[in-house]
Specification:
This protein has two domains: 188 residues, inorganic pyrophosphatase (n-terminal core) (Alpha-Beta Complex), CATH 3.90.1640.10; 116 residues, Diaminopimelate Epimerase, Chain A, domain 1 (Roll), CATH 3.10.310. The protein contains ten helices and eleven strands. A six-stranded mixed beta sheet has the order 6-7-8-9-11-10. A five-stranded parallel beta sheet has the order 2-1-3-4-5. Helix 2 packs parallel to helix 3, helix 2 runs antiparallel to helix 4 and helix 3 packs antiparallel against helix 4. Bound molecules: manganese (II) ion.
């Protein structure tokens, strides 16, 4: 698989790398990390990273603005994106050949080559594995910084069970590159005062059932009160995770036309539930969306049933 990917990279002059909408450090880290590796290894190639800008992740990288015509004869690589619907920048469809590199369950098997490894902690872990695989591929300090941030992000700072022996091994190698780890952590985890106060609200108002199913509803009114947007709530989802007795939890956030449900679990599998509510993801970390608060209650009830039948 990796040989096929290298062969395709060698074959194409223009390579455009995509990732998912509403990016996280793993999305940007794998996308731009791979870009840096290809640029360092094959300086004559034109390599671009595209997708919507997310100012909160500008400390990692900014996107390239490119013309539609560049896509026609391009190799497209999509990182960290399980479904085609979540690919940021729809012009990937104009590309000549598509490679998917991902660690989410391969439900939507798009792409001409699909390298999907659900045992990897992150797509960044796969990108680093790829860079190590062949002598024609060169790592750089900047690629190391980007890849390291994605691994740190997707493992919750090496806390989540997706963290393996291999993850630590790679992280140990990555910190040998020259980048400012303290600055990176600060950029990733410092929160604004309003987010800290929102976290306080969540901790004051969550509901927990006997089974350990937990939820909190954040209405538009609450968002307004704290002066934050729905996008800014992304980092708040872990807030309920370390409370004793919580097995799985949902943070509902009201948006313009939908209510977004961020679902997390410490054991019960929740991505099958997310699939039933216009979403998906990992067994222990998924997203879904509902159309009303009634439907939100329904989803919370289903989570309660899942927690009840889960032992321990
Ligand atoms: Mn990821």
């Amino acid at each position: 698989m990796k040989d096929q990917i290298i062969a395709k990279i060698k074959e194409y002059e223009t390579i455009i790398i995509h990732r998912h909408v509403r990016p996280d450090p793993d999305a940007i880290g794998s996308q731009v990390g791979l870009k840096k590796i290809i640029q360092a290894s094959f300086p004559d190639k034109n390599v671009y990273a595209v997708g919507e800008e997310d100012p909160s992740l500008h400390f990692l990288a900014q996107m390239d603005e490119i013309d539609d015509t560049l896509f026609e004869k391009a190799l497209i690589i999509v990182c960290d994106t399980a479904n085609q619907g979540r690919i940021s920048d729809r012009r990937y469809e104009l590309g000549e050949y598509i490679i998917k590199i991902d660690h989410h369950p391969n439900n939507d098997t798009y792409g001409d080559i699909k390298w999907v490894d659900t045992t990897a902690s992150s797509t960044c872990e796969l990108i680093y594995e790829f860079a190590k695989y062949h002598q024609s591929l060169k790592m750089t300090d900047e690629a190391a910084r980007l890849i390291y941030s994605g691994i740190v992000g997707d493992t919750g700072r090496f806390l989540f069970p997706n963290t393996t022996n291999k993850t630590f091994h790679y992280a140990a190698e990555l910190v040998n590159y020259d980048f400012d780890r303290t600055a990176l952590y600060n950029s990733m985890y410092d929160v604004t005062e309003k987010i800290a106060r929102m976290r306080g609200y969540i901790l004051q108002n969550f509901e927990i059932s006997k089974s350990g199913a937990t939820s909190i509803k954040i209405t538009q009114e609450i968002l307004d009160e704290f002066g934050i947007s729905s996008v800014e709530t992304g980092g708040l989802v872990g807030t309920l995770g370390d409370i004793q007795g919580v097995k799985a939890w949902i943070i509902f956030i009201e948006e313009k036309y939908i209510i977004r449900a961020r679902i997390r679990s410490k054991g019960p599998v929740i991505n099958t539930l997310a699939n039933q509510y216009n979403g998906g993801g990992h067994p222990l970390a998924s997203g879904a969306s509902v159309k009303s608060w009634e439907e939100a209650d329904e989803l919370a009830k289903e989570l309660d049933i899942i927690c009840q039948s889960y032992l321990n």
